[in-house]
Structure prediction request, 582 residues.
Amino acid sequence: MSMTITEKILAKAAGEKTVSPGQLINANIDVIMCHDVTTPPAVSMLEARGIDKVFDREKIVVTPDHFQPAKDIKSAELHKRLDDWAVRHKIKHYYKIGRAGVCHALLPEQGHIRPGEVIIGGDSHTCTYGAFAAFSTGVGSTDLAAAIATGQMWFRIPESIKFVLNGSLSKGVYSKDVILAVIARIGVDGALYKAMEFTGATLKEMSMEARMTITNMAIEAGAKSGIIGFDETTKKYLDEHLKEKIDYTIYESAPDAKYAAVEEFDCSKLEPMVALPHLPSGGVAISDCAGKQMNQCYIGSCTNGRIEDLRIAAKILKGKSVAIRTLIIPATPEIWKQAKDEGLFDIFYEAGCVIAAPTCGACLGGFMGILAAGEKCVSTTNRNFVGRMGSPKSEVYLASPATAAASAITGKLTDCRKYL
Amino acid sequence: MAKAHVYKRDHINTDEIIPARYLNTDDRAELASHCMEDLDADFIKKAKPGDIIVAGFDFGCGSSREHAVWSIQGAKISAVIAQSFARIFYRNCINCGFYPIELADAVNLINDGDELEIDYANGVINNKTQNKKIEFKPLPDFAIEIINDGGLLEHISKKQKV
Ligand code: SF4
Prediction:
């Protein structure tokens, strides 16, 4: 019975007493996240096979985000297909434009993520929701289609790797720097097929927003899922955000649970990090890359487009001017409004930034800040693959909102601690 | 004649296989016309139906976009042989009825342009150019069952009928 938190959640979802790594299970799904890129094809697959049904209209959450507002005719067609389907099946939690936002910021904020549940989404960064002591993983359109129709999905129980994060972060160092350091150490396939379980004192001092930045990037180490145990911070966030179903089950890893590996990190020694192109594992300390000329700064996305991120950026940009084009993209309408109400937009405006509506936008090279050949962008997003934000000859440098904002002021990769 | 197109690279990601700028469609023919575009812009001109992609570790890492598999299937590539696969891509292949072949040292055992023949039932790649037979570990039975049924949705429909 010495199971990890991940094994316990999956065992419950499969109706088994115990499970162990490698075992195949059929799990009941609690929440399915659907967005504009991968869901329309899933719907078409179901329609083509005459199984156009949804297993539970209350357990599916729909939001267009990748190309919203529609960037061209083809994406408008995708949105139309998504909308037709969501309306036809009376999907209860359908966030239409105006209330739509970047999926992984929107679902927790709107109270759709509960501890102990199994969540899937047609998006690789669905692993974000593991910050709430839930099992959560990204799937492709076929898995999504099957789950929409049946409410179930086959899984192989993953092995878990435990990451023990010790020490307090020093000034100017954030959860983004921690996860970039973790991936720099283990590599982009360092946790392939596995669950990354994060524990340790460093996490205790982090908000839920900061924790989500960590689980968000589990996929960048090849992981199936990322997970963080429940504590007072989790509870407080849930108390403020859960709306309808406010009960949940808390699971935690047994003290003698088995791990494929245990990795310890002394986070107190970390410096601000930047992942150099073209892999998220390219993380180096800012002192090793400062001074590199940038052309654009992008602050947003499911990794770092939350209110806390915008506050940090505003703190640094206050009273300054940006030297390069700088895009600020609040991840959800609620974050957008909060930033406006707190006066952050004034700071961004004075500094010369562009403020956009919630969207994935240029994070995946969709629109709203695409890079030309030869251009370099310091970005708070999670991927710096070749061509990720535009031309295959452009470069993306991943960093925290603080590092991105400081770099926007000088136009070069810059140590944010100078501005704090 | 199945020709190998060997990419001696690890971590070939879904943005290279099918760039996000084309994700505004799920039309397979159109996706196929951009297959591997940001890795090798000439790929689609060189690749003939039945050809095989060979790559290093962690092929298909990155996004969950099944469009990556569809573009490869759309381009009529008959197989991808990689030293390892990223998880979601691997799963998407199986779900689409496409057999992902995992082969340690693939990029050294197979040269660009080699002619290959794959015996799925016995887990053997016949490298005709080098006159060499290479064994690979077949997928688990349940995955083969899904592939043989033509993909996950066909598999589920079939099971529900039974
Ligand atoms: S913000 Fe970027 S990484 Fe996050 S869901 Fe959107 S495209 Fe994906």
